[in-house]
Amino acid sequence: MRLRHGPLLTALCLGAAFPLLWYAAWQRRQGNDLGMYQSQFLELRQRLLYAEKESKRRSHELSSALREIKRVVAKRMNLTTNHTDGVNWKVLNLTRKLPMHLTNIYYYLPHLQEYEDAIFPNVIFGQQRTGVSLVMGVPTVKREKQRYLINTLHSLLYELSEEQKNDCIIIVFVAEVNAEYVNSVAESVKTSFPREIQSGVLEVISPPAFYYPDLSNLKKTFGDSEDRVRWRTKQNLDYSFLMLYAQPKGTFYLQLEDDIIAKADYIQSIKNFAAEQSQEWMMLEFSQLGFIGKLFKSEDLPFIVEFFLMFYKDKPIDWLIDHLLWVKVCNPEKDADKDFGRNVLHKAHNNPPAKVDTSLRIYQQYTLEKVYEGKDCFWASAPVAGDYIRFTFLNPLKVEKYFFRSGNMEHPGDKLFNTTVEVLPADEKLRKELVDNGSKFNYPARKDGYLKIGAFENGIAEGSINQSIGKIQAIRLSVNSDSPVWAILSEGSVTVRRKFQSDH
Q: H or E element: which one contains 171?
């Protein structure tokens, strides 16, 4: 029996083994199939990613081609007005010449990634002239009072020969996003200079609506107010935009402002001076004020702009260029200061300690402290009636005489007009008596106790002070009517009778 049962057990074992062998073989086949499917899936995923990348690239190329077609069509139809489609960076040759890629701009201004056309300028008027020797950038912003732009353009274009006009471009950059205001400025320029607009020597551009980032939460530095920090930050962005637009158009770029007066034959003087340089240079300076009159090689502008964009929130533009020169040229002095001829724009005096303040809107870093301390001139936007400049002495002093000079060699017209010099006696009892009964020193008395002791004539105020007044607490320059021009105080001197200086 046992022998009979042997084949049966063998048969049973073999019968049970067959399903197991079949299952193992099926599993191996399934495993091979799964690996194959995973490999195919990964390959398909790679192809889809590549296709997506190619699609984006070709979409970008098609967009660029479409903008190029629009530009060519517009040019052929001579559409020079209200050209709001913008000029592609590629058309301006920036993609070839810029050492920084557009991604660098997006890095410094990340908000631009949300707006496709936020880096394309609105060319309102322009014939897209290129290949000139000199490109001049004139930024202009909305002012509360008088505009100087048209006078500045007259000054720049006056007596230029046809040859000079054909070899330069003046770019007016209306640094505002309000379309109504931008168009009003553009129309004003076109009305005043129709031939220059038509010929291409004069262009008017503006930034796109979304170019500027949020400027409402900037860090205060250097003791500047929130408004002033916002103003100087926007100004850095304005210069950067204008310089990038101008870069491929000519050999040299000259930075100007909208309130300057050009000297006769200025273009030839600039070209001659640049040609005379025997050493390499990054910037030539034709004005000592701020960022005005700075000449650059156009090939250097991309590098300069990238530096500006790195630190546009941190410091004023002229400080940034000084830092760049220090790093790049290893020389803090500016080239033109040594060779071009330097006019003295302010004069230092040894004044007594005082607290200074003013109601005027200060331009850039030209503060009242600097002129009083003899470090620089004081420069402010156009004064209005009621504005003042005040020097309050830390200790009351016997002041013997005073001298104030407004305007300077480069801006002789920026003077103080209809402005009086007033002093505040330190004796409060005397002040009350003067207010109640009038002045006994032949000086008209103000209601606040100040005595009018002099006035500006032809930009200068000087005189001696009646010593019977006694010690003086403060000196004030009071503006009595609106001024059509900005104001520069280039010199301020207060002479004290030394033997009384220690009295209390």
A: strand 168-174
Q: How many residues does the chain have?
A: 504
User: Cα separation of 503 and 493, whole Å?
Assistant: 21
Integer CA distances (angstroms), 490 to 358, 407, 408, 458, 460, in order: 15, 6, 6, 14, 10
CA distance 324 to 318: 10
Over the stretch 374-415, which tens digit does the pLDDT of each residue have? 888 899 988 999 999 999 999 999 999 999 999 887 777 788
Alpha carbon 372 to chain centroid, angstroms: 27
Maximum Cα–Cα distance for the chain, whole Å? Answer: 153
**Using CA of residue 34, residue 35, residue 36, residue 40, what is the dihedral sign?**
positive
Query: Would you place residue 503 in the very low, low, confident or very high pLDDT band (cuts 50, 70, 90)?
Result: very low
Tell me the C-alpha distance between 207 and 117, whole Å: 10
Q: Which run of H or E residues covers position 72?
A: helix 2-76
Contact 247, 298 (CB under 8 A): yes
DSSP per-residue codes, 92-132: TTHHHH-SS-HHHHHHHSGGGGG-TTTTS-EEEE------E
Instruction: Supply the pTM of this predicted model.
Output: 0.55
Six-digit token string for 450: 């100040």
d(CA 250, CA 196) in angstroms, rounded, equals 18
Scored b (16 or more CB within 10 A) or e, 82-103 reads ebebbbbbebbebeeebeeeee
What is the C-alpha to C-alpha distance for residues 395 and 500, in angstroms, rounded to an integer? 11
Q: Three-state DSSP class for 55? A: helix
Q: Are 242 and 253 in contact (CB under 8 A)?
A: no
Residues 318-355 as b/e (b if ≥16 CB within 10 A, e otherwise) read bbbbeebbeeebeeeebbbeeeeeeeebbeeeebeebe
Best CA proximity match to 260, nearest among 167, 94, 139, 98 = 139
Cα angle 368, 374, 378 (rounded to 5 degrees) comes to 30
DSSP string computed for 214-266: --SSPPP-TT--HHHHHHHHHHHHHHHHHHHHHGGGEEEEEE--TT--PPTTH
Q: How far apart are CA 211 and CA 120, in angstroms?
A: 9
